[in-house]
From TrEMBL:
It holds the Pfam family AcetylCoA_hyd_C. Belongs to the acetyl-CoA hydrolase/transferase family. Residues 10-219 form the Acetyl-CoA hydrolase/transferase N-terminal domain. Residues 333-467 form the Acetyl-CoA hydrolase/transferase C-terminal domain. Keywords: Hydrolase. GO terms for molecular function: hydrolase activity. This is Acetyl-CoA hydrolase/transferase family protein. It comes from the Bacteria.
């Protein structure tokens, strides 16, 4: 069955190279893609070739690049290597793009994932010149069946002057019916409540809309999404998962949540994966997930019958699991819903549903400020992603990390965080392989003692206590959050100088 059955749009089928001709130097371009899924596979590569030719001829050719979240080598990688991007938002995991951001060649705007669409509506980045969006099919009436991610595609299609579609036959045709695209968004001061009262409640349409007159090219592709594999669960991740699941048991017995918990959001990474695996082995049943990304073990939890439903904005699967999903897509219909990232990560909905948010961190300080993004204060890792959307509004949030990094030379618990993404006011529970620190209802000094005793690695515990004791002694009139400012970041400077904290 043809994937492009709209007569008007099928007339626009062309090659990636010709499609890329529609993008001009200086354009702002919104591209699809979220955690390595649903990104355009061919037009960015063709665009990178144009950029390289222009650069060899001594001409400037860069674009402002906006996406849903991280993409892959075929998008961020090729454009960064072609030195073709001057501005990037909102989340990136590609090593070449990360290098370009950290070398100062790319201006990076690390914004909450639920916020970017409205920032584009309000013109913070100027106008959106182009959109390159991957879909699974084009229907006879011109409606678009989204693929493995929705992300910001609705906004890109609405806002861009010119639209390029990539129709990827690798995505199952059965994707029709998996999506919920909300067209009721109004801008302030006309906003209405968003009526999502249960995780997989539908409030929108299964299709994306596009004005056919704006579509300048349609490119057919047949290429897989990025292979999003994780290493097998190691002992540390397993230990963190155990602490966290035990904590949830405690919350149930304390009467703070029902037996089937509250809807779960899990970030990406090894620990989140281990928690999901741990839940599969646990006694919990009839779980729900209201999250942004569906990784292997979340799908595994659904397969195991422990999880009843998932609402997200994207998949992020390893190749074998993606192939399994594609071959059996129909059997998942009704249990998985993919929404725009404005809705999957919406603060109003996260607060209403009472989400349990589980996210990784780079470091936390003794008072519970969490750094999710920066190495030694300056160097960008990936970005805040959706961690702030969820954590700030969650009923219960966890930040998880091994207690040390780089073979023990870095402590993940430090006197003062070198960058703060989640403040002490937002952080509920910290988890490392050493233990768990419940920070709810604690004042800063009590919190500090708990974090050091429960979460810091024994190699660093004594020095952290020593810092705290001296800070308290030196702050008789500033006893609320005692610090020795001249020393607070000395652990980071020592690491930069000696390679060890
Ligand atoms: O680097 O592999 O080179 O050794 O950071 O660390 O421990 O493998 O953990 O993969 O879960 O990533 C915070 C980055 C954790 C991630 C972060 C080094 C460490 C290693 C990775 P190497 P781990 P994870 C959903 C929610 C923000 C976005 C978010 C993240 C590498 O969870 O990007 O939560 N979070 N989104 O060695 C120096 C430290 C370090 C350190 C770790 N203190 N100093 N290096 N590392 N701690 C997804 C989306 O929003 C889309």
């Amino acid at each position: 069955m043809t994937r492009i059955s709209c007569p008007v749009l099928s007339k626009k089928i062309t090659t990636a190279a010709q499609a890329a001709e529609h993008i001009s130097p200086g354009d702002n371009v919104g591209m699809s893609g979220f955690t390595g899924c649903g990104y355009p596979k061919e037009v960015p590569g063709a665009l990178a070739e144009r950029m390289k030719s222009a650069h060899s001829a001594g001409e400037e050719f860069t674009i402002g690049l906006l996406t849903g979240a991280s993409t892959a080598q075929e998008l961020d990688g090729v454009l960064a290597e072609a030195e073709g991007v001057h501005l990037r938002a909102p989340f990136n995991t590609d090593p070449s793009m990360r290098r370009a951001i950290n070398s100062g060649d790319v201006e990076y705007i690390d914004t909450h994932l639920s916020h970017l669409a409205q920032q584009v509506w309000f013109g913070y980045f100027g106008k959106l010149d182009g959109a390159v969006v991957e879909v699974a099919a084009v229907l006879p009436n011109g409606l678009l069946v989204p693929g493995s991610s929705v992300g910001n595609n609705k906004t890109w299609l609405d806002q861009a002057d010119k639209v390029i579609l990539e129709v990827n036959e690798w995505h199952p045709r059965e994707y029709e019916g998996f999506h919920d695209v909300y067209y009721g968004t109004k801008l302030p001061p006309h906003r209405n409540p968003i009526q999502i009262l249960e995780p997989t409640q539908r409030i929108g349409d299964p299709y994306l809309r596009v004005d056919p007159d704006k579509v300048v090219a349609v490119v057919r592709t047949n290429a897989p999404d990025r292979d999003n594999s994780f290493s097998p669960v190691d002992d540390k991740s397993h230990a963190m998962a155990e602490y966290l699941i035990d904590f949830l048991r405690h919350e149930v017995s304390a009467g703070r949540m029902p037996k089937n918990l509250l809807p779960i959001q899990s970030g990406i990474g090894n620990v989140a994966n281990a928690v999901l695996e741990g839940l599969k082995e646990s006694e919990f049943e009839h779980l729900h997930s209201y999250t942004e990304v569906i990784q292997d073990n979340l799908l595994g939890l659904l397969d195991s019958g422990k999880l009843d439903s998932i609402s997200a904005t994207a998949f992020s699967l390893s190749r074998p699991v993606a192939e399994h999903f594609n071959a059996n897509a129909e059997s998942y219909k009704g249990r998985i819903l993919l929404r725009t990232q404005e809705m999957s990560n919406h603060p109003e909905i996260v607060r209403r549903l009472g989400i349990i948010a589980i996210n990784g961190m780079v470091e936390a300080d003794i008072y519970g400020h969490v750094n999710s993004t920066h190495i030694t204060g300056s160097k960008m890792m990936n970005g805040i992603g959706g961690s702030g959307d969820f954590a700030r509004n969650a009923f219960l949030n966890f930040f998880v990390s091994p207690s040390t990094a780089k073979d023990g030379s870095i402590s993940s618990i430090v006197p003062m965080a070198s960058h703060v993404d989640h403040t002490e006011h937002d952080v509920h529970v910290l988890v490392t392989e050493q233990g768990i620190a419940d920070l709810r209802g604690t004042s800063p000094v009590t919190r500090a003692k708990r974090i050091i005793d429960n979460c810091a690695h024994p190699d660093y515990r004594e020095r952290l206590h020593d810092y705290l004791d001296r800070a308290i002694a030196e702050s008789p009139n500033a006893a609320h959050t005692p610090h020795i400012l001249s020393e607070a970041l000395s652990w980071h400077t020592r690491f930069l100088e000696d390679g060890h904290m």
